[in-house]
Design a protein that fits this description.
The chain has helices at about 1-30, 45-55, 90-100, 115-120, 150-155, 160-170, 190-195, 195-215, 235-260, and strands at about 60-65, 75-80, 105-110, 125-130, 130-135, 140-145, 175-180. The chain has about 260 residues and is α/β, with parallel strands linked by helices. The model is unreliable at about 25-30 (pLDDT under 50).
């Protein structure tokens, strides 16, 4: 019986290890993150800009929620080629309202009309090379080409990254957020779903191995421990018992005394 359990255990575990190892190697040799994402290290990703700013000690972070007027205006936010979702008219208005009350925005799009530039219409702007600078209310907006900050482009020509770095230095924002919400990464995802794929697979594998070990070594560990229930005694229990004994003894004594000394008529 034990040999059969061991055989089944190995049959379950070996394929799991093989699958996880294969997927881990595939994960290490390729990148499954979205294009233009700061998570992606591919040529079409934006991790180089994020990592460079972090190395230069800019307070960079990732934003998992949409841009709304509720966000702190001391922050600067980069939205790069938003696609999942692409902001609709209401979303664009929320972004512009955040800028109006003091927010600072970098909005980059390529191969299509820039949503912010469309919304600004004939609003005046200043040219910074291929970038455009808009003043809106108490805030500012930078628009430009998203392709220019991709990893592959920055490796060949860093001028675009240098301009953005200069702008962020002038803004001196409390936090610089890369808005990954618009690449499909949501704040409502739980911690497990936010883990890398290979790490989630390892966690599933460990759980499967633990379950198999419990099944292999038996349904319980060690002998069962008997449960003894203690009977709760009353506080005056001894007094009551003693009183009953006295009454019982007194009755017996009275019967003996009546038998030895009968009353005379």
């Amino acid at each position: 019986m034990k040999n059969n359990k061991l055989t089944i255990f190995l049959i379950l575990i070996i394929p799991i290890f093989f699958i996880v190892a294969t997927l881990t190697i595939a994960r290490m040799t390729s990148d499954t993150h979205a294009n233009f994402s700061s998570f992606s290290a591919r040529e079409t990703g934006a991790s180089l800009l994020f990592d460079t700013l972090n190395y230069m000690q800019y307070p960079v972070a990732v934003l998992y929620s949409p841009v709304t007027p509720a966000i702190n205006t001391d922050y600067a936010i980069l939205i790069i080629q938003p696609s999942n979702p692409r902001p609709n008219q209401d979303s664009v208005e929320d972004i512009l309202n955040w800028v109006r009350i003091g927010g600072r925005l970098i909005f980059l799009e390529s191969n299509r009309n820039n949503l912010i530039e469309q919304a600004m219409g004939s609003h005046s702007f200043a040219s910074l090379g291929t970038l455009r600078l808009y003043s809106l209310g108490m805030g500012e907006i930078i628009t430009g080409d998203a392709n220019a900050i991709l990893n592959g482009h920055l490796m060949a020509n860093a001028i675009y990254g240098e301009r953005l770095t200069t702008i962020l230095s002038i803004w001196n924002a409390e936090r610089v957020y890369f808005a990954e919400y618009y690449h499909g990464y949501r704040a409502d995802d739980n911690l497990f779903r936010q883990l890398p794929l290979w790490l989630r697979l390892v966690a599933v594998q460990l759980l499967a191995a633990a379950a198999a070990c419990v099944w292999h070594f038996g349904k319980r560990f060690g002998s069962p421990i008997p449960l003894y229930e203690e009977i709760e005694r009353e506080e005056n229990e001894q007094v009551l018992v003693l009183a009953r004994l006295y009454r019982h003894a007194d009755k017996k004594f009275s019967k003996k005394r009546d038998g030895k000394n009968p009353k005379r008529e």
